[in-house]
Write a structure and sequence with these properties.
Blueprint: H1 14-30, H2 32-37, E1 44-48, H3 55-65, E2 69-72, H4 75-78, H5 88-102, E3 106-110, H6 144-154, E4 161-167, H7 175-181, E5 184-187, H8 193-212
Parallel strand pairs: 1-4, 1-5, 2-3, 3-4
Helix pairs in contact: 5-6
Length: 213
Amino acid sequence: MMDNPMDQPRPPSMALIRQLITEYIIFPLGSDLIRKRHPEHTMSFLFYGPAGTGKTQIVRAVATETRSILYDISPMVIKDCFNAEKKDGEKMVAMVMVAAKKYGPSVIYIDECEKVFPGKKKKKKGEKKQKKKVNDPNNPARIKKALMKWRAKWLNDETNITIIGCTSEPQEGSKKDFKKFFKHSIYFPFPDYTTRRLMWRTFIETQANTTLL
């Protein structure tokens, strides 16, 4: 397993990615026996890599294989939601966590998580510093504090919850927050030759059968 997010010597193969996800996410999340025998299993992961490499597809596959309920709290999903009061963002995260605990196994999905854990942008010369309000309903970072709090409080062997964040722009996020919130990370490269060949072969065979029908 990768211990240092975004610090890998070379891109992993798709076979290795499938193995890591199966051993560290699917097995513990889908089996009470495995989770009890391996209490050190990880409950928060960061998937990062170029757009279109299958990060979101893998998240949905994990939820399907483990028969988990998928809670999507990505910035695009929660935009303009729960914004009537100052702490509505915190209430939303709390409700998701309570539901995830009660109806586990559960997967909490955060796409574009670099917006929830933004990095500090360097101010250009002559540019005035513009600070976004954390409680702004259009600012995804408004749920960061609540996520940190509930992750520390409720992610354990009894709750059976796994949080998966995805990003195609990890450089825009805070590396410090990523390491603090996500226990491990997995890099998703573009498919290698063997994987592309298998995908094209499957696609061509499927299309050929469809045409014949």
